Amino acid sequence: MTDTNTAGTTQPKKKKRNKRRVSWRHYAEARGVSVRTLDRWAAAGIIPTPGYIRKRKYIDPETEPRRDADAA
Predict the structure, then answer these.
(1) How many domains are contained in the chain?
(2) The sheet that has 22-23: what strands, in order across it?
(3) What does the pLDDT read at residue 42?
(4) Does 36 fall in a domain?
């Protein structure tokens, strides 16, 4: 019997890297604003809407608010 794997070298599967997230509250504290302000920014499109994990809001900590929204 011959081996059906003709490639010889198989690469091990890479683990999927988890996205880095912080809670909505921690993101608000880092920005110096309230959680309600973040909700308003998300509704206005200044920051992306948060992701939900078990009914709690999370966001990428490196997300920056839009600069053109400061003038409004």
Answers:
(1) 1
(2) 22-23, 56-59, 51-53
(3) 95
(4) yes
